[in-house]
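TASK: fixed-backbone design
INPUT:
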């Protein structure tokens, strides 16, 4: 099996399918972060399915291997950004976020329906690059507010992924169509960055959740120690009052 974008995409898809399951199984015990871990793992699985469909472009109908695959990857990256945003902004406007996502999906399907190929290719690259940079912003913000330096790995790899999508956008403008499975530098760079992103997502997010749970336990232990100390002080005061009464 030669090292081409299709093979690299399949390897990245397997990582996206396996690593989220590993993260979920390892981190699901913490009740406070179980929902966050579940959503992040679901986003990884969605991205993995999208990459598998992309790798079979040419063997599957374009509606599945192109439109559906791009929509799934777009949803997965957008979910990642929204999950991180929710960590430091609990009141997230899900209606607004959902409206933006549905609008992007509708435009993608519309451009495919009217067979405006150049517009479709440019729009897809744009709509994949934007959530990447959105996730980068949220990862940096979350790393700052939550004191989670491991999330900077997530930001760094998604920066590279966004740049590769932007590069494909530029290449398409110049008149050279680029498909994800084409054996060219643009497609190869995106596929390799996809593998790096899957690993960074797993390591960065797992490190963030682990540190968050550790801090919560330390705070709980400190609170318990403080309560125990207060109980000891109250007992001593009661004992002194009893002795004074005698």
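OUTPUT:
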């Amino acid at each position: 099996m030669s090292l081409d974008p299709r093979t690299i995409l399949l390897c990245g898809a397997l990582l996206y399918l396996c690593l989220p399951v590993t993260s979920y199984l390892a981190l699901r015990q913490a009740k406070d972060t179980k929902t966050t871990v579940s959503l992040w793992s679901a986003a990884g699985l969605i991205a993995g399915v999208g990459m598998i469909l992309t790798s079979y472009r040419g063997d599957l109908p374009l509606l599945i291997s192109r439109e559906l695959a791009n929509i799934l990857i777009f949803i997965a990256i957008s979910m990642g950004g929204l999950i991180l945003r929710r960590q430091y902004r609990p009141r997230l406007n899900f209606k607004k976020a959902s409206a933006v996502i549905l609008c992007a999906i509708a435009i993608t399907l519309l451009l495919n329906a009217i067979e405006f190929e150049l517009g479709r290719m440019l729009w897809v690259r744009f709509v994949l690059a934007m959530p990447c940079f959105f996730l980068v912003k949220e990862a940096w913000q979350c790393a700052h507010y939550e004191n989670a330096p491991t999330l900077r790995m997530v930001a760094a790899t998604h920066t590279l992924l966004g740049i590769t999508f932007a590069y494909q956008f530029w290449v398409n403008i110049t008149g050279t169509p680029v498909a994800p499975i084409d054996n060219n530098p643009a497609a190869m760079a995106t596929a390799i960055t996809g593998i790096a992103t899957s690993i960074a997502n797993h390591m960065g997010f797992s490190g963030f959740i682990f540190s968050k749970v550790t801090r919560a336990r330390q705070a709980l232990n400190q609170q318990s120690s403080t309560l125990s100390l207060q109980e000891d002080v109250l007992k001593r005061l009661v004992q002194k009052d009893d002795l004074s009464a005698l």
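COMMENT: The mean pLDDT is 82.
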